[in-house]
Specification:
The complex is a heterohexamer of chains A (80), B (121), C (254), D (90), E (484) and F (113).
Chain B lengths: L2 H6 L1 H19 L3 H22 L22 H32 L4 H6 L4
Helix pairs in contact in B: 2-3, 3-4
Chain D lengths: L1 H24 L3 H26 L2 H33 L1
Helix pairs in contact in D: 1-2, 2-3
Chain E lengths: L2 H6 L11 H26 L2 E5 L8 E5 L1 H28 L5 H20 L3 H20 L4 H32 L4 H8 L5 H18 L8 H8 L2 H27 L7 H28 L3 H21 L3 H32 L10 H4 L1 H15 L5 H16 L2 H27 L14 H19 L5 H12 L2
Antiparallel strand pairs in E: 1-2
Helix pairs in contact in E: 2-3, 2-4, 3-4, 3-10, 3-13, 3-18, 4-5, 5-6, 5-10, 6-8, 6-9, 8-10, 8-11, 9-10, 9-12, 10-12, 10-13, 11-12, 11-17, 12-13, 12-17, 13-15, 13-16, 13-18, 13-19, 15-17, 15-18, 16-17, 16-18
The chains are: A mainly alpha (80), B mainly alpha (121), C mainly alpha (254), D mainly alpha (90), E mainly alpha (484), F mainly alpha (113).
C-alpha cells in the first residue's frame, strides 16, 4: 500500500513538473511550482525526513514562490 | 539493469528524470524565469536523490524516542546535507531573480534570444 | 536542429545516470555502505554526543557544524548579492507597486493578517527555533516562517508600514546574527583550548557540561533563526521596492 | 486502519490530480490559483493521513501546521498583485 | 590550528559600513599573516589537519592543509591582498557609492570561501564553499549594473548553478557507494567498494562539472563575457583565483579522492585524464586564436585565461612528475601574470576609459610603469625565459617528452607562439607606435593602484628567476600524488 | 466494543471527507466560471478537510496531537475563507466577467466600464 501511494506521489511530482514546464503563463508556473514543492514535502515525510519537509514547506511554499511572484509581477507574465 | 530493479529504485529513476527535465528546461526554454524554474526542479531532484539514498525499509525518522531502535532509523546525514542544500538553492534563486529584475529593467524583456540579440550597445 | 542536439545530449546523460542507478545499492536496503560505515555511531550515540533528540539537528549543529556555518554564509552572501544588485530601500520610505496603486487590501485580509501575524511569529520563534532539538524544526525553518509572516504582513499593510516597523537600522545588525553567533560560540571553544565549534568544554563536567552545550546550541539556533528570517525579509523588501514609486523624503509618511 | 488511511489518501491524491488538470487548463490566473489552492488543501490532508499511517504523528504535525499557515501567504500575494496589475493598466 | 579562525576572520568585516576598506584590509592582512605562518608547519610535517567541532574525520569535518592547499591558500592571500589594495581607488569609479560596502563584503566572502575551498577535506563542505564563491562571483560580475554585465552574470549563473548541481549529484553517487564524505576516507574505501561503476559515473560528473567551473574548452563560453565585463579587480580575481578553484576541484577529485594508481578504476581514470588533456590542448589553441582576433583588451585577456587554464590542466593530467610540477607552477605564474594584466587594463580604463587595443598607441610613453608591468606580465604569459611562465611551460614540455606525448609538445609550442602574437601586439602598440599625446608628461595612476600592479609583475619575474624556491616542493608534491 | 464504534466513526468521517473532496473536484471541473468554482474550493474542500481532521482526532484520542490537529483545522478554516475572498475580489477587480447565458446581461458588470 505504501508503495502505491509512493508511486502516485512520484507520478504527481513528475506531472506537476511537466505542467510547470509546459505552461506559458509564468505566474501559473510559479503557482504550480509551489504545488510541486508541496508534493516534494509529502515525499519527504514518506522518506522519514520531517525536518526537510518542514523546510521545504516554509521555503518552497512560502519564500521561493513569493520571490517568483514578485519578480514575475515586476517583469512580465507571458513567456514568449 | 532490469526492470524490477528499476522499479525498486523508483525514486532514483524519478529523480534522474526530473533532473533531465530541469536540464531540458534550462537549456531550451528562452524565458529566463522558466529557466530558473527548471533550475529549481533540478535542485529538488538532486535533493530527492540524496535523501532516497538514506532511506531504510520500514525506517523511522531519526528522532530519538521511546520504542524506536537506532537500527531502525533512516540515515540522518543526507537530511542534514539537504537542509544545507535547500538553503543554497534558495540563495541561488534569490540572486538569479534579482538579476532577472535588473535585466528586465535594462533590456525590457526576459527572452534570452532577444537579450542576446540586443546585447551589443 | 538545436533541440535535437539538446535531446541527444540529454539522452546520453540520462543513459549514464540510469546506468549508475542500476548499479547502485538498492534503495531501502540496510546493508548499503552509507548505512554501515559512519551512521551507526550517529544513531546510537547521537543523543548523548550530539546533544539533541533529533539527530538531524545534532548532525547539523554539532558533527557538521562547520557546514552549517557555510550555509549561513551562503544566505548572507545571497543577501549581499541581492542588495548589491537592487540597492536597499532608502530611509524606509519605499513603496511597492500595490501600495502605489492606492488600493488597500481588503478589510477581511487585513483583519485576518492582524490576527494571524502574532500567532505565526510566536509559532516561529517559540516553537520552531527553541524546540528544534526534540522535534523537527530548527533555526532556519523558524527563520523562514518568520520571513513568510512578515511577507504576508507587508502584503496586507503595505511596504511603507512594514519598513517603518522594521527599519534598516534594525535589520542590518540583525542580518549578521547568524554568523556572529557561530563565530562567538566557536571562539568560546577556542578560548577554552578546544577546537573551533566544540561544545563540550574542558573543565566543565557532568550535567553542567550538558547544560552549557545545550545553551550554546540554542544560541546558535536562535541566531540562525533571526538572521535567516531577517535576511529573507530584507531580500523580499529589496525585491518589492520599486524606484518608480519612491516616495520623496519630505513627504510625510502615510 | 493504516491501510485504510493510505487508501483514502490515495483516493484524495487522485482527486488532486484532477484539480491539477483544471489548474493546468484554467483560462484565467485566478482559476489556476483556486485549483492549486485546492490541490494544496488536499495534499495537506494526504500529509495528515501519511503521518498517521507512519505512526507517531506528533513529530510530523508541525509540517501540516506550517502548510496551513503558508498556503495563505502565496494566495494573498498572488491575489494582491493581480488586483494592482489591472489597475496599473487602466 | 588557528586556520579555522583565520578563514572566518574576514566575515567580521561586513558589519562596518563606513571604513569598509581599512576593515577588510585588516581582515585580509590578518588572514594572510596566519596563512603564511603555516608555511613552515606544513613544510615540516607535510600536512596540517584540524578537526572542526572536535570530531574525527569520518564523523566530523576535517580541515586539511596539504601542499596543494597551502599553495592555493598562499596564492589567494597574496593576490587577494594586492587586489584589495588596488580596488580601493578603482572601485569608486565603476560602481555606485551605496554599493561599495557590499562590494567589500562580497570580496571578503569570496576570499573566505576560496580559502575554505582550498583547505577543506570534506566533500560536502567543498560543495558549500563552492556555492559561496559562486554566488558571490555572480554578484561581483553584475555589480556595476551595466547591461552586458547583467547578461554575462546571468549566463555565468546558469552554467555555474548547473555545474554545482552536477557536483552535488556526483557527491550523492559517491556517498551511496562509499558511505562517507571525507575525501581520504572515500579514497580508501573506494579501493574495496563493490560499486565501482557508480564511482566511475561520479567521476565523470565531477570532472564535467569542474570543467565548467574552470572554463575548459567546450564549456568556456561564460568566461570571456563574465571576465571582461566585470570591474577590473573583479576580473583579476575571477581570472586569477576563481577559475583556479575549478582546477583545484579537478585536481582534488582526480588525485585526492580517486587517486592515480587505483586498480579498479584505472582505465576509466586514465581515459578521463586523457579527455581532460585533449580538452585542455584544444583550449590552449582555441583560446589563443580567439584572443588574437579580439580588439578589446579585456576580452583578449579573458580568452588568454582560457588558454592558460588549458596549460595548467594539460600539465596536471599528463601524469608525469615534471608535467604536474609545471602545471602547478603555471597556477602561480598565471595567477600573478593574469591579475597583473587585468589590473593594467583597469588602469587604462580608470585613467582614459580605453578598452580598445588600437587606442593604446604610445601609452608606454606616458604611463611607463603601467605599460612596463604589462610587458613583464605578458612575458610571463607567453613564457619568455626569465619569467615564471617560462619555468612552468618548460616543465610541461618536459613532461610531454617524458610521457612521449609529442602531439602535446606541438600544442604547447604552438600555444606559446600564438600567445606571443596576441601579447606582443599589445606591447607593440603601447611602446612602438604613435608619438604619445603631445604635451602630456608622465601621467600615472594613483600609487595604490600602481603598487599592486608593479608588485605582481615583479612577482612573475621573481618566481621565474628564483624558481628553485618553489620547484622542489612542487616536485615532491607531484611525486607523492603520482606515487612515483 | 467502543473500539469498534470509534473505528466506525473514523471510517465514517474519513469517507465523508472523501465524499466532500470528490464533490469539490467535480464542482471544480464542471462549474462554468471562476466565481462558481470558488464554491467548491472554499466550501467543499474546507468541509472535507475538517471532517478528515475530525476523524484523525478520534484516532489520536485526547492528547497534544489532537490539539495540534484542531489548530490546523482552525487555520485551515481561516485561510481558506480568506483566500477565497481574496481571489474573488482580485478576479472581480481585474475584470473577470461572470459566466452568463448568451444574451443575458450579468448583474455586476456595468456597461460603461
Amino acid at each position: 500500500m505504501n508503495w502505491a501511494l509512493n508511486l502516485l506521489l512520484l507520478l504527481f511530482l513528475v506531472t506537476t513538473a511537466a505542467v510547470a514546464i509546459r505552461l506559458r503563463d509564468l505566474l501559473a508556473v510559479a503557482i504550480v511550482f509551489s504545488a510541486y514543492s508541496l508534493m516534494m514535502a509529502i515525499l519527504w515525510t514518506q522518506l522519514r525526513a520531517p525536518d526537510l519537509a518542514l523546510t521545504e514547506a516554509a521555503v518552497g511554499a512560502g519564500v521561493t514562490t513569493v520571490l517568483f511572484v514578485l519578480t514575475i509581477f515586476k517583469t512580465t507574465r507571458r513567456e514568449d | 539493469m532490469n526492470f524490477s530493479r528499476m522499479f525498486h529504485n523508483l525514486n532514483y529513476v524519478v529523480s534522474a528524470l526530473l533532473f533531465l527535465m530541469g536540464l531540458y528546461t534550462v537549456v531550451v526554454k528562452p524565458n529566463l524565469i522558466k529557466k530558473l524554474i527548471g533550475l529549481n526542479i533540478m535542485e529538488t531532484s538532486v535533493f530527492l536523490f540524496i535523501v532516497s539514498i538514506g532511506m531504510v525499509e520500514g525506517g523511522e525518522a531519526p528522532i530519538v524516542a521511546e520504542g524506536v531502535k537506532s537500527s531502525q532509523m533512516v540515515n540522518p546525514i543526507p537530511q542534514a546535507l539537504i537542509l544545507t542544500g535547500i538553503v543554497v538553492a534558495v540563495s541561488t534563486t534569490a540572486v538569479a531573480l534579482s538579476l532577472c529584475l535588473k535585466i528586465h529593467e535594462r533590456y525590457g524583456t526576459l527572452n534570452a534570444a532577444e537579450i542576446l540579440g540586443r546585447g551589443e550597445p | 536542429m538545436r533541440k535535437a542536439a539538446v535531446l541527444g545530449a540529454l539522452l546520453i546523460i540520462g543513459a549514464m545516470l540510469l546506468f549508475a542507478i542500476g548499479k547502485m545499492p538498492a534503495m531501502n536496503s540496510r546493508n548499503a555502505p552509507d548505512k554501515t560505515h559512519v551512521i551507526p555511531r550517529y544513531l546510537e550515540k547521537g543523543e548523548e554526543e550530539g546533544g539533541a533528540k533529533n539527530i538531524v539537528t545534532g548532525v547539523i549543529l554539532n558533527y557538521r557544524g562547520y557546514d552549517t556555518m557555510g550555509e549561513v554564509t551562503v544566505i548572507f552572501s545571497a543577501l549581499c548579492a541581492v542588495v548589491a544588485l537592487l540597492d536597499r530601500e532608502k530611509r524606509g520610505l519605499s513603496r511597492s507597486s500595490p501600495d502605489a496603486s492606492g488600493v488597500r487590501s481588503s478589510v477581511i485580509v487585513r483583519t485576518v493578517v492582524r490576527f494571524a501575524f502574532p500567532v505565526i511569529v510566536f509559532f516561529a520563534v517559540a516553537y520552531m527555533m527553541l524546540h528544534g532539538e526534540g522535534s523537527p524544526g530548527g533555526g532556519f525553518q523558524g527563520g523562514a516562517i518568520l520571513g513568510a509572516s512578515v511577507i504576508v504582513f507587508t502584503l496586507a499593510f503595505g511596504l511603507p508600514e512594514s519598513t517603518r516597523r522594521m527599519p534598516l537600522k534594525v535589520r542590518i545588525p540583525l542580518e549578521s546574527t547568524a554568523i556572529v553567533g557561530f563565530l562567538a560560540m566557536g571562539i568560546i571553544g577556542l578560548a577554552y583550548g578546544v577546537n573551533f565549534l566544540t561544545y563540550l568544554l574542558p573543565g566543565v563536567h557532568g550535567a553542567m557540561a550538558q547544560t552549557v552545550r545545550n545553551l550554546m546550541m540554542t544560541v546558535i539556533e536562535v541566531g540562525i533563526g533571526i538572521g535567516g528570517g531577517v535576511i529573507f525579509i530584507s531580500i523580499v523588501f529589496a525585491m518589492m521596492r520599486e524606484d518608480k514609486y519612491e516616495l520623496q523624503p519630505d513627504v510625510p509618511q502615510p | 486502519m493504516n491501510y485504510f488511511f493510505l487508501a483514502v489518501a490515495a483516493a484524495v491524491m487522485v482527486n488532486a490530480f484532477l484539480c491539477l488538470y483544471q489548474g493546468a487548463k484554467g483560462p484565467t490566473i485566478q482559476d489556476r490559483v483556486i485549483s492549486i489552492n485546492i490541490v494544496n488543501t488536499k495534499t495537506l490532508v494526504v500529509l495528515l493521513f501519511v503521518f498517521f499511517a507512519i505512526g507517531e504523528p506528533g513529530t510530523y504535525l508541525d509540517i501540516a501546521l506550517v502548510y496551513a499557515l503558508l498556503n495563505f501567504v502565496v494566495t494573498v500575494a498572488v491575489s494582491r498583485y493581480i488586483e494592482t496589475e489591472r489597475i496599473a493598466v487602466e | 590550528m588557528p586556520l579555522a579562525f583565520a578563514a572566518l576572520c574576514p566575515i567580521w568585516g561586513m558589519w562596518r559600513r563606513k571604513a569598509c576598506f581599512p576593515w577588510s584590509l585588516l581582515g585580509v592582512a590578518i588572514t594572510s599573516f596566519l596563512v603564511w605562518s603555516l608555511i613552515g608547519k606544513v613544510n615540516a610535517s607535510k600536512v596540517v589537519a584540524y578537526n572542526v567541532s572536535g570530531w574525527r574525520p569520518p564523523w566530523g569535518i576535517q580541515i586539511r592543509i596539504d601542499y596543494m592547499g597551502l599553495l592555493m591558500a598562499c596564492l589567494i592571500t597574496g593576490v587577494g591582498l594586492m587586489l584589495l589594495i588596488y580596488s580601493w581607488r578603482y572601485i569608486v569609479s565603476e560602481i555606485k557609492e551605496e554599493r561599495i560596502p557590499y562590494y567589500y563584503t562580497l570580496y571578503l566572502l569570496i576570499f573566505t570561501a576560496m580559502l575554505g575551498f582550498s583547505i577543506t577535506s570534506d566533500l560536502f563542505n567543498f560543495f558549500v564553499f563552492m556555492e559561496i564563491f559562486s554566488i558571490t562571483s555572480y554578484a561581483l560580475v553584475a555589480i556595476s549594473g551595466e547591461r552586458m554585465a547583467l547578461r554575462a552574470a546571468f549566463k555565468y549563473l546558469l552554467m555555474g548553478a548547473i555545474s554545482s548541481l552536477t557536483v552535488l549529484f556526483a557527491i550523492a553517487f559517491l556517498y551511496s557507494a562509499t558511505g562517507s564524505l571525507n575525501m581520504l576516507d572515500i579514497s580508501s574505501r573506494l579501493k574495496s567498494t563493490a560499486y565501482l561503476p557508480v564511482a566511475s559515473v561520479a567521476l565523470i560528473l565531477f570532472i564535467a562539472a569542474f570543467a565548467v567551473k574552470s572554463a575548459l574548452f567546450p564549456v568556456h563560453v561564460w568566461l570571456p563575457d563574465a571576465h571582461s565585463i566585470a570591474p577590473s579587480p573583479v576580473s583579476a580575481l575571477l581570472s586569477a583565483l576563481v577559475i583556479k578553484m575549478g582546477v583545484l576541484g579537478i585536481f582534488r577529485i582526480l588525485f585526492t579522492v580517486y587517486g592515480h594508481s587505483f586498480s579498479g578504476l584505472s582505465s576509466t581514470w586514465n581515459s578521463i585524464a586523457g579527455v581532460v588533456a585533449w580538452a585542455a590542448a584544444l583550449s590552449i589553441i582555441l583560446g589563443s586564436v580567439m584572443a588574437i582576433i579580439q580588439r578589446d583588451l579585456k576580452i583578449m585577456i579573458a580568452y588568454s585565461s582560457v588558454s592558460q587554464i588549458g596549460y595548467i590542466l594539460l600539465g596536471i593530467t599528463l601524469i608525469s612528475t615534471r608535467g604536474m610540477a609545471g602545471g602547478l607552477y603555471n597556477i602561480v605564474a598565471h595567477a600573478m601574470g593574469k591579475a597583473c594584466l587585468f589590473l593594467v587594463a583597469g588602469i587604462f580604463i580608470y585613467k582614459h576609459g580605453l578598452r580598445r587595443i588600437e587606442n593604446l598607441r604610445g601609452i608606454g610613453r606616458t604611463m611607463p610603469v603601467t605599460a612596463g608591468a604589462f610587458a613583464l606580465a605578458a612575458l610571463s604569459i607567453v613564457g619568455v625565459p626569465p619569467s615564471a611562465g617560462f619555468v612552468a611551460k618548460w616543465y610541461i614540455l618536459w613532461g610531454c617528452f617524458q610521457e612521449g606525448q609529442y602531439a602535446f609538445v606541438i600544442v604547447v609550442l604552438l600555444g606559446s607562439l600564438l600567445s606571443a602574437v596576441y601579447c606582443f601586439r599589445v606591447v607593440y602598440y603601447m611602446f612602438f607606435t604613435g608619438a604619445g599625446r603631445p604635451g602630456v608628461g608622465l601621467d600615472e595612476a594613483p600609487f595604490t593602484m600602481l603598487a599592486p600592479t608593479a608588485i605582481l609583475s615583479v612577482g612573475t619575474l621573481f618566481f621565474g628567476i628564483f624558481a628553485t624556491l618553489l620547484l622542489p616542493s612542487l616536485n615532491n608534491a607531484a611525486r607523492v600524488l603520482l606515487l612515483k | 466494543m467502543s473500539e469498534y464504534v470509534r473505528d466506525a466513526f473514523i471510517v465514517l468521517f474519513s469517507l465523508t471527507g472523501l465524499f466532500f473532496f470528490v464533490g469539490g473536484t467535480v464542482g471544480l471541473l464542471r462549474c462554468p466560471d471562476l466565481y462558481a468554482r470558488l464554491h467548491p474550493s472554499t466550501k467543499c474542500d474546507t468541509l472535507g478537510a475538517c471532517s478528515v481532521i475530525l476523524a484523525l482526532c478520534l484516532q489520536a484520542g485526547a492528547s497534544f496531537v489532537t490539539l495540534k490537529l484542531l489548530a490546523i483545522a482552525f487555520f485551515l478554516l481561516l485561510s481558506c475563507a480568506t483566500c477565497g475572498h481574496a481571489i474573488g475580489r482580485s478576479a472581480f477587480r481585474s475584470g473577470v466577467v461572470p459566466w452568463h447565458k448568451p444574451g443575458v446581461k450579468p448583474w455586476p458588470i456595468e456597461e460603461d466600464e
